[in-house]
Design brief:
Elements (H helix, E strand, L loop, with lengths): L2 H12 L12 E4 L3 E4 L4 E4 L2 H4 L8 H13 L11 H13 L6 E6 L2 H16 L3 E5 L8 H6 L3 H5 L9 E4 L4 H4 L3 H15 L5 E6 L15 H12 L2 E5 L23 E4 L10 E6 H4 L15 H16 L2 H17 L8 E7 L2 E6 L8 H13 L2 E2 L1 E3 L5 E4 L7 H17 L1
Helix pairs in contact: 3-12, 4-12, 9-10, 13-15, 14-15
Bound molecules: ligand PLZ.
């Protein structure tokens, strides 16, 4: 049996079935754009651990910073004995997130935990209960964030009841609703006004480009209209930049592209080169509304994760990974556009920077998850790690590490093109 086969047998006997894996090969090592499995097979990486290893796997600065920090100390708990790394990461987040106003940050372990804490802060600051989220949203798998997440399977099915005071508004989804940003925002705001009431809204929470929900890019003006409405209503506008952040869309964060300065920004994934770290950053008066001791957790802002984050951010600056993401778009978007013919299943190419997707529809214009899954399967068989997404499972998304070299990127796109042609 192959080494992966052996591991898979052990896994099946030891790991809970509810935790799935996209492929059945097991990783031996990974770099910036490729991964080698335990049988010595090389894979091209268009997943980056779901938009995490923007600086690549085992990025040299990150490796060195982690090694040095582990030798000094692994953990004290910032709530017990604080250390510089936590403070330095908060300083970076305050400087890099959109908005030139005075900011404060707090650190956590995962994206879901960051979103939970953004909701806590918004509720505490406003004294209101309601959280408004959108169709196709993904915000995590904890109980509150499952309430915020839209899709039933596989995330929510039989895991309820979910946290109350969560309201879902219609998203701007140009391919399917054909609405301008202003009209889509008016539609959403009408739902909020009539079904929630402006005076009850603590937070309007949105991904500036939706991730798991299908790489949905809202029509221009949608986000800005919502942010304006939230401000006028005295609600906190929260951007979940967990998947879009840290150079992924060709800028440090996606919100400024739409002229939006969120009150709070949630970060995770790309922040620390693969180590678990997350943050909530925002207006000082909102963040500091919470009483001393109201936020925290044993591991939040762990010193090793903070050292990795500082090194990852340094790497993004040094290698100009925002420009690298735009370069990936320049190379990949025309290739993807070439796949979108009148005859084929590719109905739209969308996304920004190195967050790109194709949406697959059938001849009648309906979502086609079967063809989407077949394309992904063909890619996996050819050694390309490629993810699908979308409420209807009919979107193929590209999330390569931003350090991927052009040859590897091109080979991955060749595999995808062949798989689409075959579908
Ligand atoms: N917000 C926008 O993309 C995580 C999750 C995949 P955690 N997305 C990948 C899966 O099937 O679990 C995500 C996100 C956005 C929040 C989260 C949650 O981040 O670090 O997974 O908790």
């Amino acid at each position: 049996m192959s080494a992966s086969g052996d591991l898979h047998a052990r896994r099946t006997a030891a790991v809970a079935r509810g935790v799935g894996s996209m492929i059945s090969s097991y990783v031996d090592s990974a770099g910036g754009g490729t991964m080698t499995d335990v049988d010595g097979r090389e894979w091209i990486d268009f997943a980056a651990g779901i938009a995490v290893t923007n600086v690549g796997n085992a990025a040299p600065r990150v490796v060195e910073a982690v090694r040095a920090q582990v030798e000094r100390f692994t953990h004290t708990c910032f709530m017990i004995a604080p250390y510089e790394g936590y403070v330095a990461v908060c300083e970076r987040l305050n400087a890099l997130t959109p908005g030139s106003f005075d900011k404060r940050s707090a650190l956590f372990n995962s994206g879901a935990e960051a979103v939970e804490n953004a909701v806590k802060v918004a509720r505490h600051h406003t004294g209101r209960p309601a959280v408004v989220v959108f169709d196709h949203a993904y915000h995590g798998r904890t109980n509150l964030t499952l309430a915020l997440t839209a899709k039933n399977m596989p995330y929510k099915h039989r895991f309820g009841p979910f946290a109350p005071e969560v309201y879902r508004a219609p998203m701007s989804y140009p391919l399917h609703d054909g609405l301008s940003g202003a009209d889509a925002a008016a539609r959403a705001i009408d739902v909020i006004d009539k079904q929630v009431g402006a005076a009850n809204v603590a937070a309007v929470l949105i991904e500036p480009i939706q991730g798991e929900g299908g790489f949905v890019v809202p029509a221009p003006g949608f986000l800005a209209a919502l942010a304006d409405w939230a401000r006028g209503a005295g609600a906190v506008f929260v951007a979940d930049e967990i998947q879009t952040g840290f150079c992924r869309t060709g800028d440090w964060f996606a919100s400024p592209h739409d002229g939006v300065e969120p009150d709070l920004v949630c970060t995770a994934k790309g922040i620390a080169g693969g180590l678990p770290l997350a943050g909530v950053t925002g207006r000082a008066e909102i963040m500091d509304a919470v009483h001393v001791g109201g936020l925290g957790g044993t591991y939040g802002g762990n010193p090793v994760a903070c050292a990795a984050a500082l090194a990852a951010i340094e790497t993004m600056h040094e290698l100009d990974l925002c420009a690298a993401a735009r370069r990936i778009e320049d190379i990949a978007k025309p290739r993807l556009a070439g796949l979108a013919g009148a005859e084929g299943p590719v109905a739209e190419v969308r996304g920004r920077g190195a967050m790109l997707a194709i949406e697959i529809l059938d001849a009648a214009g309906r979502p086609d998850p079967a063809t989407t899954a077949a394309i992904a399967k063909t890619c996996h068989a050819a050694g390309l790690l490629l993810l699908t997404c979308g409420t209807y499972g009919n979107v193929i998304r590209l999330l390569p590490p931003l350090v991927i070299d052009e040859d590897t990127l091109g080979r991955g796109l060749d595999i995808l093109a062949a798989a689409v042609a075959e579908a």
